[in-house]
């Protein structure tokens, strides 16, 4: 039985989807004005693992991640770079897809873009005006926060306290300083769309409400995002969606903890950030995913190169077992001994961990316990049957690969012109062997690591060194 912490109710609840077989899940994606930072990557990876586990449990998951492709930041970047805002959005959208692919994040079912959903956004704004929850002032349309009596139910903030301490841009048009823009009147030279209130563009909050309701329905199962989005973004999504539809918006809200540097939240506004592609230049996607998986999704994580180095080293245990398995499978020997390995116990422990509010660190611990026990069995027993190795591989694919994404068993297809490449690899293996014989272990290790970075894993056996290619 899967249980999760619901930010809306402030308690752990049993997960019961609206439809027994299907799960609708929405996550706030990037505003495409720059490369996303490694803190954003944590949110994307945690959401990816949760989505993968729901699929592991047999649910059909409709996973929707939006792209905010019109925004003040995009317009500012377009002015700085002297290019159209659409060019800025296109450049960084493409970069986003490149980077999430490298991070082994599964593609969303759909990536709706704000600029492609203007009709739905306008329709929701009109519904809010008709319902008395929004008002138009000379082409600027604002949401009336005071009209929604439950405002603050997600964040726990109270309107009267927010009004006293409000630090928002002073706009005389607003009835209340907390009211927020649904439609922004266009300024000269800015992109705009036509509406009955005049030329303009949507506010950020209304985009997510309109796109999530369009693709998942007016009420859906899971909405996820970083802790920094609880207020005001997610709070505003609830207010405007429920005022427009008169229905509950989301059943379960999941939020991911901050990634910190020196105990401060990593953010572009503070300037203390690394982009995901910067980190990917130094570390593998699997190491980054393992690093994030060693802390609970709701808690903070301190970014630390030493911990990423440790994650890379930890992966060696998984990779070595993978090489042992593939070597045994490739030999394809018949017969052998059944070691009586208790796969069911490890599978139960893995499920129990993730059913407990997605306790990913505990699930990772189960994987490494599995690796340790598998290696002990291989060391203690000779002539193990092929089915044992196939079962090891199947378990790791279903858990460490398909759910956690911390190792891959996918092989690169061999090309007809790869003979030269294979011969060059063999030359490097010979150089590595010579280095080891001369006790130049640093060079030997450097060769192994460099080959690994190109997707080539070495496995030292009694018969010599074998190599395997993978994505």
Task: Give short descriptive properties of this protein.
alpha/beta, Rossmann fold, Four Helix Bundle (Hemerythrin (Met), subunit A), 15 helices, 4-stranded parallel beta sheet
Produce the secondary structure layout:
Blueprint: E1 3-6, E2 11-14, E3 22-27, H1 38-56, E4 60-65, H2 72-81, H3 85-102, H4 118-130, E5 134-137, E6 140-143, H5 159-164, E7 180-185, E8 200-202, H6 204-216, E9 220-226, H7 230-245, E10 250-256, E11 259-261, E12 264-265, H8 276-280, H9 285-293, E13 301-302, H10 305-331, H11 343-355, H12 360-380, H13 386-401, H14 419-437, H15 441-453, E14 456-461, E15 464-469
Parallel strand pairs: 3-4, 3-9, 9-10, 11-13
Antiparallel strand pairs: 1-2, 5-6, 6-7, 7-8, 11-12, 14-15
Helix pairs in contact: 2-3, 4-6, 4-7, 6-7, 9-10, 10-13, 11-12, 14-15
Description:
The protein is α/β, with parallel strands linked by helices. The chain has 3 domains: 3-302, HUPs (Rossmann fold), CATH 3.40.50.620; 305-409, Anticodon-binding domain of a subclass of class I aminoacyl-tRNA synthetases (Four Helix Bundle (Hemerythrin (Met), subunit A), Up-down Bundle), CATH 1.20.120; 410-471, no CATH class. The chain has helices spanning 38-56, 72-81, 85-102, 118-130, 159-164, 204-216, 230-245, 276-280, 285-293, 305-331, 343-355, 360-380, 386-401, 419-437, 441-453, and strands spanning 3-6, 11-14, 22-27, 60-65, 134-137, 140-143, 180-185, 200-202, 220-226, 250-256, 259-261, 264-265, 301-302, 456-461, 464-469. The strands form 5 sheets. It has a 4-stranded parallel β-sheet with strand order 4-3-9-10, sandwiched between helices. Strands 5-6-7-8 form a 4-stranded antiparallel β-sheet. It has a 3-stranded mixed β-sheet with strand order 12-11-13, covered by helices on one side. A hairpin with a 2-residue loop joins strand 14 (456-461) and strand 15. Helix 2 crosses helix 3 and helix 10 packs antiparallel against helix 13 (386-401). The two termini are 34 Å apart. Residues 412-417 have low confidence and may be disordered.
